[in-house]
């Protein structure tokens, strides 16, 4: 039984183009390493709002459905499925639809922005619910996860909510505009693990207001990495929210574990091992803690 619990295989279907199953007639721009849809809301007064809304027959939704069904059918009983199409959220959906003008809307078009975020919230919920039904109907007792990190979260909880817009707004803007829709979004699914870059300090003190956040995951961003000493400030600003900590070396793990013990905060770790040998060493270490 120990061997079965220690190791399981993961399967993730990759896709190298943007998929927007919540808007009709979107134009996609392709670049060397990524792609994005061109903003569709250029003017609030003249925009046709009927273009926005999740539709199961949308080509993007159908693509995700086929990918997830294919993965589940071939992975049944053999490995953990990491489905596609479950990582959307209200503000990032709104940003995709409005483009960079979203950031001036906080000041110039606040009422329209609230309307857009309300629609984007429902689009995100409907899109995730649809793909989860696809996965639930295909796994037949297999395993499923809500994020490409490969860790398990209970029930319908969003395992990784990465709200990129929140990195680029003030704390007050986050509280007034983004927080209400994140609350609605996460309440629908029973909670979330909220993941943000270590540079997003301005929103930390508002995270507990979500009310259904299971843990906060501070992430590395470019050349700015999470270090053990950051935990003191994070614990203080988030009023002791449980933490998800991702580590990449034994030295890093020991440093984080020391600060976690000193602060008394609850935390769980994902240790990303670059080699099988380090993975074996990590398993031996974890078994020694039991």
Short structural description:
The chain is of the alpha/beta class. It has a three-stranded parallel sheet, covered by helices on one side. Strands 6-7-8 form a three-stranded parallel sheet, with no helix packed on it.
Description:
- By secondary structure, this protein is an alpha/beta fold.
- The protein folds into two domains: 9-152, TIM Barrel (Alpha-Beta Barrel); 155-290, Rossmann fold (3-Layer(aba) Sandwich), CATH 3.40.50.
- The protein is 42% helix and 15% strand.
- It has a three-stranded parallel sheet, with helices on one face. The protein has a three-stranded parallel sheet with strand order 6-7-8, with no helix packed on it. A two-stranded antiparallel sheet has the order 2-3.
- Strand 2 and strand 3 form a beta hairpin.
- The two termini are 16 Å apart.
- 33% of the residues are buried.
